[in-house]
Design brief:
- With about 290 residues, this protein is α+β, with helices and mostly antiparallel strands.
- It has 3 domains: about 90 residues, 2-Layer Sandwich (Ribosomal Protein S5, domain 2); about 40 residues, no CATH class; about 140 residues.
- It is about 60% helix and about 15% strand.
- The strands form 2 sheets. Strands 1-2-4-3 form a 4-stranded mixed beta sheet, covered by helices on one side. A two-stranded antiparallel ribbon has the order 5-6.
- α4 runs antiparallel to α6, α4 packs antiparallel against α8 and α6 runs antiparallel to α7.
């Protein structure tokens, strides 16, 4: 059993980059990946999602990715030589007119021009896609593996709690079955005694049995108890399953609640009502736990 809450992190460096991936997951009906990463890694988003689906099936996962260049070689100086040439020519042609200088010092012009971003810019070099793809795959695989291990660890704790709750429900159902058997026998005896007390020897035995059967059938909960027992057996099986069972557990719990509600509506003895309340309390605790099961 796996929880949908977990944490994973992985870090790795190549000659060119450092890559750090951090994962945080919480419960969700479906697999929902919220990826925050530098634009340089956009081509690898499909790869990251593929790795995620191989490791987990449900939950909202916040994915934080940081990419740090280790070399300055990813930047390149770009000089607009054509614009510089125009500047030098304009200054040389206008030097005599404005300054009385025939040979304008082009070197000084160039040095000054280099300080202006219009003439010199830094541009990003294309990333090494093959190298970066391998780095992303390695780090993402390790991070999602750690996340899966974290979810398994918490899932083991949830499994233990659910087994305990299942045992408590089974005990109450056994107690309920025992009480119902005793209650029906006692009810039949008291009902017959009351009729004989009021009517004496004029009681029609066949009519008495028919009426008694109708009364007992109205409050008969044997079928609900049998189905509840079957559901408990299914619950025990699901708790031992290694595949994701969160959705199936949710559906099963709905059926168990339906049976308990029916028992409560069909029964009048206060003892049965009390057990129904206890069953509802435990089933609600189970529901809270399985909301976080993958």
């Amino acid at each position: 059993m796996k929880s949908m809450t977990g944490y994973g992190q992985a870090f790795q460096a190549s000659e060119t980059y450092e890559l750090n991936i951090e994962l945080k997951s919480v419960n969700n009906r479906f697999l929902d990946l919220q990826i925050r990463m530098p634009k340089e890694l956009n081509p690898f988003e499909a790869l990251i999602r593929k790795i995620a689906k191989e490791k987990i099936q449900r939950g909202r996962v916040d994915v934080f990715i940081n990419l740090t260049p280790l070399k300055s070689g990813n930047k390149k100086v770009s000089v607009d030589w054509e614009l510089l040439q125009q500047l030098v020519m304009e200054l040389q042609n206008g030097g005599k007119e404005h300054f009385g200088i025939v040979d304008f010092p082009a070197e000084q012009v160039l040095v000054k021009a280099m300080e202006q971003s219009d003439f010199v810019t830094l541009v990003d070099q294309p990333t090494e896609k093959d190298t970066l793809e391998g780095l992303v795959q390695a780090v993402a695989t390790e991070a999602f593996t750690q996340l899966a291990v974290s979810r398994e660890h918490e899932g083991a704790g949830i499994q233990k709690i659910l087994k305990e709750y299942g045992s408590n429900v089974r005990t109450l159902v056994t107690e309920l079955k025992s009480f119902v058997t005793e209650y029906e026998a006692d009810f039949q005896q008291r009902y017959q005694a009351k009729l004989e007390e009021y009517l004496g020897n004029t009681v029609d035995r066949d009519r008495l049995l028919t009426e008694l059967a109708i009364l007992l059938e109205r409050g008969d909960i044997h079928e609900e108890l049998d189905r509840l027992t079957i559901h408990l057996e299914k619950l025990a099986q699901l708790l031992e399953t290694t595949e994701p069972v969160g959705r199936e557990l949710d559906f099963l719990l709905q059926e168990m609640n339906r049976e308990v509600n029916t028992i409560g509506s069909k029964s009048s003895p206060i003892q049965i009502k009390d057990i129904v309340v206890q069953l509802k309390t435990i089933l609600e605790k189970i529901r809270e736990q399985i909301q976080n099961v993958e």
